[in-house]
Amino acid sequence: MSGGRPSTAGWWLVAPALLVIGVFFAVPVAAGLLLAFTDFDVYAIARPDRLRVVGLANWGRLAHDARFWVALRNTAYFVLVGGPLSIAASLAAALLLEARLARAKALFRTIYFLPVVTTLVAVAVVWRDLYHPRHGLLNAALALLGLPAVDWLGDPRWAMPAIILLAVWKNFGFNMVIFVAGLQAIPERLYDAARLDGASAWQRLRHVTLPMLAPTFVFVGVITLIGYFQLFAEPYVMTQGGPANATLSVVLLMYEEGFRWWNMGTGSAIACVLLGIIASSTVLQLRLRTAEAERE
Amino acid sequence: MRRIAGTIAVNAVLVAGAAVTLLPLLWMVSASFMPTGEASAVPPRLVPSAPTLAHYRALVARLDLARAFANSALVATATTAIALVLNTAAGYAFAKLPFPGRARLFRALLAALVVPAQVAMLPLFLLLTWLHGVDTYWGVVVPGMASVFGIFLVRQYALSIPDSVLDAARVDGAGELRIVATLVPVLCAPILVTLGVFTFMGTWNDFMWPLIVLADRARYTLPVALANLAGEHVQDTELMMAGAVLTVLPVVLLFVCLQRYYTAGITAGGVKE
Question: Is the pTM of this model over 0.90?
Answer without folding.
Answer: yes
